[in-house]
Structure to design on (496 residues):
């Protein structure tokens, strides 16, 4: 039997899959992370670059402050970061110097574990990223195989790709990332031995899979049976649905199967209860088990992309188009040569599908990202690109201009410093280099206001007070001041 270690993904992937990447705030971290710290997780997924963007864009919060809050609240828990290709926040490639700075800042703010995948399975690019992570001081770098299904993504394809990691000193081990929840127990039993046959020096013992088909709880058990020691899971209400298997039920299932897992289930339950209170106070969705849907194996869109796309279409007043967009995404992926449906390509595919549906004509308008992808920005596609689409792309002004005038080298750090301001901290400099100015200005203004309020001892707002009073792990303490008179009330929560 396997000695299983759990990796929590609630605050990152759970948030992205169930709450559209915008539900978790810094205050959420402060309430939930102390409980997560006591569970005994092997690691917790702290962020991808999406967290940085949504913190600024939707909450006007400093993402580095959020990371600091997580590190302070969970000092005994290893924090991890997922990178998908050489990009940070933007959906295009980030200049190498900025990418290097991002890694250095992540380490400075307490992140020590990194998962590295390249969505096109450009393993040389992934190994380059892994070396960059090691140079920045990451203690553990995990190279990923990004699982999908298509006519070209066979066991032999994956085995040949993953074998390229075997002699890379910057990669400590290998994991299977199944962002769309497509793996089945039977498929895992054929895939894992095949992958291991191509490895002599590296171990493959970690599994990340989603519940989109409802099979993830069974697939994780199959992984444990195969000796995969590190299993990713989430806490309700950020489990199930398009997210990961419920950690609470997974523990029960592992033990019933005869595997060993040593965690504090009470702390796990307290963390889950805190998340549930927040969901209900803020009217956020709760993940529910999904019925098996055979059609899901056709479009393969990850949970986070589905929830985010649905939210964005609703905001545009076009929520009713979501089924048609999902259907169209299948054809777009085939036409593009079967790229894997993961960030950023999942977004490229679904955006192009939305353009097709809204126009009522396929490829009447082609997104710049699809043009750049088909011009080779991310390397060759796994399969053949539709010739008619490729010809149409090459006839576009953007393509002709790029071919005639290759893009100049990206600006250096020194150039960007001169342009953005030499007085900026490294953190603000990086964010201003990749985020819209107006969004950063709003974040900085709110951050400065909060810091001034804290310096003057400002009290909590009504929402924050309600959340604080609803948490049985916090002592009750209310202070009311008028003039020179201060009244302080303290007490304990009692059950009813």
């Amino acid at each position: 039997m396997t000695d299983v270690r759990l990796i929590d993904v609630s605050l990152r992937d759970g948030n992205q899959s169930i709450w559209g990447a915008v539900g978790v705030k810094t205050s959420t971290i402060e309430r939930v992370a102390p409980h997560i710290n006591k569970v005994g997780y092997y690691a917790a997924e702290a962020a991808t670059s999406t967290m940085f963007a949504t913190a600024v864009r939707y909450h006007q919060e400093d993402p580095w402050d959020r990371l600091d809050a997580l590190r302070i609240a969970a000092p005994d828990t290893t924090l991890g970061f997922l990178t998908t290709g050489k990009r940070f926040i933007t959906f295009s490639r980030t200049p190498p110097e900025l990418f290097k700075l991002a890694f250095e800042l992540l380490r400075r703010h307490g992140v020590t574990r990194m998962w590295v995948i390249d969505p096109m399975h450009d393993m040389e690019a992934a190994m380059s990223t892994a070396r960059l992570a090691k140079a920045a001081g990451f203690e553990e770098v995990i190279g990923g195989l990004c699982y999908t299904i298509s006519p070209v993504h066979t066991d032999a394809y994956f085995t040949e790709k993953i074998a390229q990691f075997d002699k890379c000193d910057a990669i400590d081990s290998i994991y299977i990332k199944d962002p769309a929840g497509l793996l089945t127990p039977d498929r895992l039993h054929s895939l894992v031995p095949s992958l291991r046959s191509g490895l002599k020096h590296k171990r493959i013992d970690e599994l990340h899979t989603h519940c989109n088909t409802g099979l993830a709880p069974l697939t994780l058990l199959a992984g444990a049976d195969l000796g995969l020691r590190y299993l990713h899971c989430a806490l309700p209400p950020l489990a199930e649905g398009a997210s990961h298997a419920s950690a609470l039920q997974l523990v029960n299932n592992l033990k019933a199967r005869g595997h060993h897992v040593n965690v504090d289930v009470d702390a796990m339950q307290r963390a889950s209860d805190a998340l549930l209170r927040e969901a209900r106070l803020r009217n956020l969705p709760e993940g529910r088990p999904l019925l098996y849907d055979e059609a899901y194996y056709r479009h393969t869109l990850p949970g986070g992309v589905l929830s985010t796309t649905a939210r964005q279409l609703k905001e545009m007043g076009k929520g009713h188009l979501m089924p048609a967009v999902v259907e169209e995404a299948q054809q777009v992926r085939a036409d593009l040569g079967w790229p894997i449906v993961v960030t950023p390509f999942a977004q490229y595919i679904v955006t192009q599908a939305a353009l097709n549906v809204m126009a009522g004509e396929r490829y009447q308008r082609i997104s710049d990202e699809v043009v750049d992808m088909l011009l080779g920005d991310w390397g060759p596609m796994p399969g053949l690109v539709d010739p008619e689409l490729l010809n149409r792309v090459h006839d576009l002004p953007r393509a002709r201009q790029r071919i005639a005038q290759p893009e100049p080298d990206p600006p250096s750090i020194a150039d960007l410093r001169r342009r953005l301001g030499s007085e900026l901290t490294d953190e603000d400099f990086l964010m201003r280099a990749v985020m819209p100015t107006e969004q950063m200005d709003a974040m900085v203004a709110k951050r400065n206001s909060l810091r001034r309020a804290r310096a003057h001892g400002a009290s909590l707002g009504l929402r924050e007070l309600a959340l604080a009073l609803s948490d049985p792990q916090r002592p009750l303490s209310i202070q009311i001041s008028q003039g020179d008179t201060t009244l302080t009330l303290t007490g304990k929560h009692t059950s009813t």
Notes: Residues 60 and 443 are 4 Å apart (CA to CA). DSSP finds 22 helices and eleven strands in the chain. Residues 437-455 form the longest helix (19 residues).
